[in-house]
Amino acid sequence: MIQSYSPSHADFIVEFHGEFSSFLKTRKSFIQGETLTVLRNLTIRSPKAYSTVQCGRGVEDNAELNSDFLYVNHSCEPNIAFDLSSTDPTEWHVRALKNIDAGSPVTFFYPSTEWEMDQAFECQCGTETCLGRIQGAKFLTTEQVNERGWVSPWILELMEERDA
Ligand SMILES: C[S@@+](CC[C@H](N)C(=O)[O-])C[C@H]1O[C@@H](n2cnc3c(N)ncnc32)[C@H](O)[C@@H]1O
Questions:
Q1: Whose CA is nearest to atom 13 of ligand 1?
Q2: Which among 9, 69, 89, 104 would be 20 to 30 A from 42, CA to CA?
Q3: Nearest ligand 1 atom, CA 50
Q4: Which GO terms describe its biological process (predicted)?
Q5: For the domain 12-163, what is the CATH code?
Q6: pTM for the whole structure
């Protein structure tokens, strides 16, 4: 039982399940392009972990979210993007890639930010275009990454160098 949990974002709710099986849902609808939240209170320059989001190409360019957005699961057909691409971290935000109904899980394509993930997993997103094992963009073709709605600039750069 979680005893001291308090939600970080009023418009969102965590559905708690077993280990690594919890996920974040939205209580309100969003339209494509709308900002779900600006990311605040991050711990930047964190060691890479299952819970961090990559925010650049350096080994220490990882951010702990310190909020319920930690519970955003991966999907191969995501409905949101984590956009940590601005040189100004106060502009880092989460954006809707499509219209999202209230009550829906929010999901992002982990390889859109992650080159080589700390914790790989067998994807259970259940979508038609599911890629199976998810371990970062390094292990996917550029085409597989580019067709998911949003890709961070460091991932584009690293794929370009790899493919050269
Ligand atoms: C940042 S956590 C996301 C929240 C996580 N579900 C939890 O309960 O803590 C990332 C981990 O969640 C799990 N996960 C996320 N998306 C998944 C998916 N599509 N299929 C299977 N496991 C997933 C994996 O174990 C992954 O390492």
A1: 20
A2: 104
A3: 27
A4: methylation
A5: 2.170.270.10
A6: 0.96
